[in-house]
Amino acid sequence: MLRPRFLPDNFTLALVTTVALASWWPARGALAPAFETLTSVAIGLLFFLHGAKLSRQAIIAGATHWRLHLLVLASTFVMFPLFGLALKPLLGPLVTPDLYLGVLFLCMLPATVQSSIAFTSIARGNVAAAVCSASASTLIGIFVTPVLVSLFVVPHHAGGASAWGSIGHIMLQLMAPFVAGQLLRGWIGPWLGRYSGALKFVDQGSILLVVYTAFSAAVVQGLWKQVSLSSLAGLLVVCVVLLALMLALTGWSARRLGFSREDEITIVFCGSKKSLASGIPMAKVLFAAHVVGAVVLPLMLFHQIQLMVCAVLARRYARRLDAAPAQDEAAAPTR
Asked: Is residue 285 domain-resident?
């Protein structure tokens, strides 16, 4: 049976179900520490698998196209945070302080890998550059995101820990498993390739577990009493505005700097998107338990909006490229 066009993908439905489950049956009492420990193990496993799956060639390659990568990284780690900070007078009245904190955190995250590459491929952009750029964004984000959070979100830092202590924590919990995965890639890489479909459930299951734990703690602290329908509506507007600004900025910058159409497509899709897979585990490490639920809510909403908008945009790019040869042929003089 064909899937209705209006129905979200299975993972989005699972995220919504997990939030609903945590809202009705949050982990309380003795269960809460058990889920915290299980979540920490799941985060380590998630980044271990990312390290084992990502080829060393993909990490090293693409250095020759430094202008493209530099523009993508500037969009991800400079322009996005600047927009988040500059728009505070506009965003403040629309969302609660904790939700704005989540928006600011969203702006400091690395780009998503899988969907950036997939949309670049659909739009017929420079897929090789997308692989290198998105992978570099993830690796650099492990270092840069904690630093940005330490600089701009210090009052809300996890448990009152020092900035450098929190950075060390995230390096230990995220980077160490990633490096371990890279070191063991020669032994387990082929196995991961054979069972990539099954391992997708490990990735997604880890994220769902983190979401459940985060929202459980937030619900126990009264999240849904603090977040009104008007705040959720305001958050929707904020996410749409941020995505529109970044799509426009990346496209304009690519054309202004003389990139080809294929490179422009890569810059647009890699420079305007944010990673749910990296963001939720990072939030769990960087923020106090009672605010994590509100912090990840903007990221979850932005993630779904970026998927829907970029799917439409990728098909539009592809149609333009299909139409270009026909227009050139029609414009050519007949002999």
From this structure: yes
In a domain, 328, yes or no: no
Residue 252's domain comprises: 10-318
Alpha helix segments (H runs only) across the chain? 10-24, 31-53, 56-60, 66-74, 80-86, 88-91, 97-107, 114-122, 127-152, 163-170, 176-183, 185-194, 196-220, 223-226, 229-256, 261-271, 276-286, 289-331
**pLDDT digits over 253-280, tens only?**
999 999 999 899 999 999 999 988 788 8
Q: Tell me: the pLDDT tens digits for 107-126?
A: 999 998 767 877 888 888 88
Q: Residue 26 falls within a domain, yes or no?
A: yes
pLDDT at position 159 is 46
Output the CA–CA distances (angstroms, integers) from residue 55 to 51, 58, 89, 173, 189, in the order listed.
8, 5, 43, 21, 9
Q: How many domains does the chain have?
A: 1
What does residue 108 show for φ and ψ, rounded to 5 degrees?
A: -100, 5
- Answer whether residue 335 is part of any domain: no
User: Model pTM?
Assistant: 0.71
**CATH number of the domain where residue 306 is located:** 1.20.1530.20
Residues in Cβ contact with 64 at an 8 Å cutoff, skipping those fewer than 6 apart: none
The model's pLDDT over 121-142, given as tens digits with 9 standing for 90+, comes to 888 888 878 877 887 888 788 8
